[in-house]
Amino acid sequence: MNHDKSRDKNMSRTFIGKRGCCSICAFIFISMIFAVYLTYFRHPPADELIRMNNHRFSMDSSHNVKSDSSNARQSPELDTEKDTNVDLPEVVDKERAKWENFLREKNYVSIGEVFDSCDAKSRKLVGQTIMLKDEKHGGVKTRTFLNFTTESDVTDGEFFIDVKYNDNDLFDNHWELCGLTYYNDDGEEEVLADCPYPKGFHSYTKDRKIPDYLPKGKFETNIWITDQNKDAVLCGRSIFVL
Ligand SMILES: *[C@@H]1O[C@H](CO)[C@@H](O)[C@H](O)[C@H]1NC(C)=O
């Protein structure tokens, strides 16, 4: 009788012990997940993110010769493009001045630029990508302004994208341009370009949410669109940090 009781006690002690151990493990596990979330995923508020990205792009981008030395070590690829871009034709500078004026007037934070070709020597600035607070969905979004002119109808072509995360390749892909669709921020399918895409002047403003699930770090996105002759008609790069 006595013997049985003490055995029961022992058993219940080990049982509680195991449960206690399980709770501690679960607690540690949950704390670790939470710490990982705080460290890598929880972004600062939108205002802070925009402040973090202020002047960042112009520091990284190809036209700013002064930043060459600081960037050269990180990315040899960026650097070669910079070297070819030191002497810009006057017409290019005029376009740049117009866009920089536009950014200054509106107090926009630029995180990207779009050109009419990928050739660093002859390309002309045709657009800007800025970072904004996303009032509708929360967090931050990008807005791209484009004013470009196509010399002839675009009847065929491809859309290329290449994304780097903390200077490592993350994702690249390409699609047929004609009839290419994508989902906008409200989840509706939209056509990017219908072919033939008429020659002449085009003016666009497009918003794109920066997804909240992206981890913290530096994102570099290169996008280029080619026509039926495989010439790039638009070529853009954006760099932002989260
Ligand atoms: C872009 O085009 C629109 C429409 O023609 C014009 O109102 C705007 O000033 C242009 N922006 C720049 C920076 O050239």
Automatic annotation (TrEMBL):
Spans traversing the lipid bilayer: 21-41
Positions of the UniProt region annotated as Disordered: 60-84
Source organism, top-level taxon: Eukaryota
Residues annotated as domain MD-2-related lipid-recognition: 162-235
Biased composition (Polar residues): 60-74
Keyword tags: Membrane, Transmembrane, Transmembrane helix
Coiled-coil ranges from the UniProt annotation: none
Cross-referenced InterPro entries: Ig_E-set, ML_dom
Protein name as catalogued: MD-2-related lipid-recognition domain-containing protein
Originating species: Patella caerulea (Rayed Mediterranean limpet)
